[in-house]
Amino acid sequence: MAISLSVVLLLAIILVVLIRGGSIKAGPAIVAILFGFFLASSGMAPSITRFLDSIADMVNSISF
Prior knowledge:
It is a single chain. The chain has helices at residues 2-21, 26-40, 45-61. It is built from three helices and no strands.
């Protein structure tokens, strides 16, 4: 849960920066948000979650 909340927060910050910077307008941003909302309720959601979890595990295993 903590990882998904962090990703949502990070993506929200990026979206706000893109809107304020003029790179993306409000209309396409709303479409992107709705796309993500409906994608999360589709059958692909478990596969996407597993993919993101594997990336988070890989990043977590990197040691410097």
